[in-house]
Amino acid sequence: MNLILLRAEELAPTGAGSQRAVLRDRRLQHLREVLRARVGDEVGVGVEGGAIGKATIINLDAQAAELELRLDEPPPPPLDVTLALALPRPPTLRKVLQQATALGVKRFALFRAERVERSYFSSHGLHASALAEDLQLGLEQARDTIVPTVEVHPEHFGRFVRERLPELCEGRAPLVAHPGAATPCPRAPIGPATLIVGPEGGFIPAEVALLKSLAQAIDLGPRILRVETAVVALLARLSP
Amino acid sequence: MNLILLRAEELAPTGAGSQRAVLRDRRLQHLREVLRARVGDEVGVGVEGGAIGKATIINLDAQAAELELRLDEPPPPPLDVTLALALPRPPTLRKVLQQATALGVKRFALFRAERVERSYFSSHGLHASALAEDLQLGLEQARDTIVPTVEVHPEHFGRFVRERLPELCEGRAPLVAHPGAATPCPRAPIGPATLIVGPEGGFIPAEVALLKSLAQAIDLGPRILRVETAVVALLARLSP
């Protein structure tokens, strides 16, 4: 946790024109047990959707931490890549959400494909609270405050591609990661993009054919990578 | 597992000039339970240190699988980046070894730094069998056969840098990942390189100063990434 993320409603003005916040949850525990912070220490803070900065701990005990805030920097710029991902198994989903959020992705769309097990769509990892936790871990890691959106598309793949993917790609460069594609993944930012990544085991041929009619197929070389590795590798190449 | 990795001593010639192998361990289990393979199916295989290719399953039961091998392709080219990594906590080490091996790294050097907990050097993850398993998982993922080497350097950081790091960097471009460095991480292969990556929380200033006298400091942008994410991002940019 490189940044303690506060919600706007947790901020209270002080007489002196600065702002304070009081923590009582896992962030308090983190301050005490991981950072072993003391009164007077400075820690990184940010407000959901807003600025980042520093906080001075002005009171700290087992029940609460009181912080005085100086929020004077913008969060890091987002990575303007929408990640459309065939829903992976729950532990992989967590890794991808945390890491892609840390890398700056602000929109995720999780879809069904032939090689996606149906049970994944009823996993706990898709509950709003589980998604929120993974996104928050990614933001805290990267000192970011802008919470990504996550859409879940359990409908049939063909319907997703015809009815939802065009909107996800509108005004953006559509890319589909496909091992063996003739075009290598770009090595520099290409402006707004939508990156489509298939399931472990890949898209089936009919899915590849449909996606190739809508998106540029790109390749990462001859090595077959796990989904979580491929996503980080692709985003790292597209990052500024 | 995109490739079943065989040891050279498991290969037996057949009269017809081809080769066979018999599996009885977790690879048999994988064939039966994950791939749900049947007699006549083809699977990807490779020989440690040698060629990759296809195998036809000619016998399969609960005790053994017999494969007929056609090993006629080279493994994917290695990534000529030596990864010198401050020893991370055991779960992170596993992720880094597996992912960096899948990306083609062939030499790892794990070293001590101020922010490395001493207990990590006595963790089970550094036992030869645990290391071998992580490397094998990475190779099986990427359809590779060339087993990387892993060196562990528990000596003091200063001694490691003075006495071992020069050899690790000899004839190679030395790079140290350091958030905030003025030079961005290269976005293309730069030939043989040694990439030095610090612990979660970073190198302390004295360590940075020492490393900067030996290696070019490079940066991945304003987002602070976890070690496993940073390693994949750096290697992805340096990969062909």
TrEMBL record, chains A, B:
<keyword id="KW-0963">Cytoplasm</keyword>
<dbReference type="InterPro" id="IPR029028">
    <property type="entry name" value="Alpha/beta_knot_MTases"/>
</dbReference>
<dbReference type="Pfam" id="PF04452">
    <property type="entry name" value="Methyltrans_RNA"/>
</dbReference>
<dbReference type="InterPro" id="IPR046887">
    <property type="entry name" value="RsmE_PUA-like"/>
</dbReference>
<dbReference type="Pfam" id="PF20260">
    <property type="entry name" value="PUA_4"/>
</dbReference>
<dbReference type="InterPro" id="IPR046886">
    <property type="entry name" value="RsmE_MTase_dom"/>
</dbReference>
<dbReference type="InterPro" id="IPR029026">
    <property type="entry name" value="tRNA_m1G_MTases_N"/>
</dbReference>
<dbReference type="InterPro" id="IPR006700">
    <property type="entry name" value="RsmE"/>
</dbReference>
<comment type="similarity">
    <text>Belongs to the RNA methyltransferase RsmE family.</text>
</comment>
<dbReference type="GO" id="GO:0008168">
    <property type="term" value="F:methyltransferase activity"/>
</dbReference>
<feature type="domain" description="Ribosomal RNA small subunit methyltransferase E PUA-like">
    <location>
        <begin position="23"/>
        <end position="69"/>
    </location>
</feature>
<dbReference type="InterPro" id="IPR015947">
    <property type="entry name" value="PUA-like_sf"/>
</dbReference>
<keyword id="KW-0949">S-adenosyl-L-methionine</keyword>
<keyword id="KW-0698">rRNA processing</keyword>
<comment type="function">
    <text>Specifically methylates the N3 position of the uracil ring of uridine 1498 (m3U1498) in 16S rRNA. Acts on the fully assembled 30S ribosomal subunit.</text>
</comment>
<feature type="domain" description="Ribosomal RNA small subunit methyltransferase E methyltransferase">
    <location>
        <begin position="76"/>
        <end position="238"/>
    </location>
</feature>
<protein>
    <recommendedName>
        <fullName>Ribosomal RNA small subunit methyltransferase E</fullName>
        <ecNumber>2.1.1.193</ecNumber>
    </recommendedName>
</protein>
<keyword id="KW-0808">Transferase</keyword>
<dbReference type="GO" id="GO:0032259">
    <property type="term" value="P:methylation"/>
</dbReference>
<keyword id="KW-0489">Methyltransferase</keyword>
